[in-house]
Design goal:
This protein folds into two domains: 2-188, 3-Layer(aba) Sandwich (Rossmann fold); 198-256, Orthogonal Bundle (Helicase, Ruva Protein, domain 3). The chain is 35% helix and 18% strand. The protein is built from eleven helices and nine strands. Helix 3 links the parallel strand 2 and strand 3 (57-62).
């Protein structure tokens, strides 16, 4: 327990239930990539079950030096596949030049940043299985018209099919968090191109939700002189992913005139 208490400053709650760990690992299908990166393995609760799968090649990324030492001592099968560093900062192409799936019990305080990093490598990451705060899971799986629908919801759903797999009780962690967790799975869809300027799409979505209470005719003033008809009186949570793509396409067309 002293080890666990020492790691609280990393925002990590360590899973202690092996049945849940096995269930999370079983949720990883690896149909499109058998290279798997585990983010933040800690003391290896998921790692031990990942190593039992013969259909994957595993590398783990851990920022904490003590955890890296622990993994090296207790999981010799990892050999040289323990990478010490920050997933959010490292060049992932030096970790592996091929497509890779991601799995992990994601620290609450950086889970959104992890998903933004996934978006930046979306053509190399066909699948993600992650345990996150239940509220975050519900947000990522929500549909337009829902108050939890937001920036990351739209951006991820443009490129991934997202499934809410199961809820995880706070009692299976050490230390126990004050909230429930949930496991979700992201599977890369068949969208190669959005049919609009991708950078503009990201900007439109972020700008609209940064002032989500305003109608688009007001919130998007810094993006376009005039919001296209049919969108002016809407608020961002009312637009589906496809409607955001259509809106971006029309704004792009206006800017080319």
């Amino acid at each position: 327990m002293n080890y666990v208490r020492a790691k609280r400053n990393l925002g990590q709650h360590f899973l202690k239930d092996k049945n849940i760990a096995q269930k999370i690992v079983d949720s990883l299908r690896t149909e499109s990539a058998n290279m798997v990166l585990e983010i933040g393995p800690g003391m290896g609760m998921l790692t031990q079950f990942l190593l039992q799968r013969n259909n994957i090649r595993l590398k783990v990324i851990e920022i904490d030096h003590e955890s890296v030492s622990y993994l090296g001592q207790h999981y010799p099968a990892l050999e040289n596949n323990i990478i010490e560093g920050d997933f959010l900062e490292m060049d992932l192409f030096t970790v592996t030049p091929e497509k890779f799936s991601i799995i992990g019990n994601f620290p609450y305080n950086i889970s959104s940043q992890i998903f933004f990093r996934v978006l930046g490598h979306k053509n190399y990451i066909p699948e993600v299985v992650g345990m996150v705060q239940k509220e975050v899971a519900e947000r990522l799986c929500s549909v337009h018209g829902n108050k939890t629908y937001g920036i990351l919801t739209v951006l991820l759903q443009a490129f991934y099919d997202i499934e809410y797999l199961f809820t995880v009780s706070e009692q299976v962690f050490a230390p126990a968090p004050r909230v429930k967790s949930a496991v979700i799975r992201l599977t890369r869809n068949n969208v190669e191109r959005l049919g609009c300027d991708e950078k503009l799409f990201f900007r439109v979505v972020k700008t609209a939700f940064n002032q989500r209470r305003k109608m688009l005719r007001n919130s998007l003033k810094q993006v376009t002189v005039e919001v296209p008809e049919g969108f002016q009186q809407l608020r961002p949570e009312q637009l589906s992913v496809q409607q955001f793509i259509s809106l971006t396409r029309q704004i792009e067309s206006q800017q080319k005139k």
